[in-house]
Amino acid sequence: MITSLAQFQDHFAQALATSEPDAVPEIAALARQPGFSVYRNTVLKGCIDALQANYPSVARLVGEEWFRAAAATYVRLQPPQDARMLYYGAGFAEFLARFEPAADLSYLPDVARLDRLWTEAHAACDELPLDPAALSGLDPDALAGTVLHPHASAHWSWFAEQPIYTIWRRNREALDDGSEIAWQGEGVLLTRPRGAVAWIALDAGGCAFLDACMASNPLADAATAALNARPDTDLAQLLSTLLEAGAFGRIGGTCKQS
Questions:
Q1: With left for phi above 0 and alpha for psi between -120 and 50, is residue 252 left, alpha or beta?
Q2: Which branch of life, at top level (predicted)?
Q3: Which of 13, 147, 222, 251 shows the greatest Cβ crowding within 10 Å of its Cβ?
Q4: Strand order across the beta sheet in which 155-159 lies
Q5: CA–CA separation, 23 and 213 (whole Å)
Q6: Chunked in runs of 10, what are the mean pLDDT values of the chain (258 residues)?
Q7: Which residues pair with 156 in a beta bridge?
Q8: Hey, where are the domains in the chain?
Q9: Which residues contact residue 58 at a Cβ distance below 8 angstroms, ignoring those fewer than 6 apart?
Q10: Cα 6 from Cα 205, distance rounded (Å)
Q11: Which helix (H) or strand (E) holds 201?
């Protein structure tokens, strides 16, 4: 009985997602009933609503009508696999990269990736940010050998070709800024050290520094990575900025996701 119920649920979900629900033979009779289409449309709308909530910057960029039409296509291709709709749409950026109507919007997939990073920062496990005082008493040699583990909520990305952070921020914050955008590479750091997700611009050196920290490299190696990415990096200022932003959770160790 348990197996039969599970199979029925799988077929029912398949029929909800397909464009021809009565093509699923196991529940074809049920799918042909008028009430099924009502339920199917309600589920579709709920999935589209969740995508719009999870990708607000993308939705504002392209407009609600365009976004919901694209989302409807995505939902049929990739229905939810998790009942927690906050997490829905993990593959939306990759979908947009292949979506023909978005071919002229080369920045759109990366804007979607930043919206996704916001969700991941928002949903990360709780962790206290590292107190800068924990480093203040270390001598230079000890500091160079220290490993800083990024905060559980810290997410960052470097976009070498386009001003993705500026485009994303203007739409995420609904800024009516008509000034021209400098078309150059940008990076961003998102953190949630004190309950709300925050973001700051981060250059290539800062992103390389955090990449090295994520790989459990000591600060000396992280500094080298930053300088290789951007030779004029002010390492002291960078570390101060990252500590202030709550980019680190602890010296060594990890924060396990629940």
A1: left
A2: Bacteria
A3: 222
A4: 155-159, 186-191, 198-201
A5: 52
A6: 61 64 66 66 89 98 97 92 93 98 97 98 95 90 94 97 97 90 97 94 98 97 98 97 96 51
A7: 189
A8: 124-258
A9: 67, 92, 96, 108, 111, 112, 115, 171
A10: 51
A11: strand 198-201
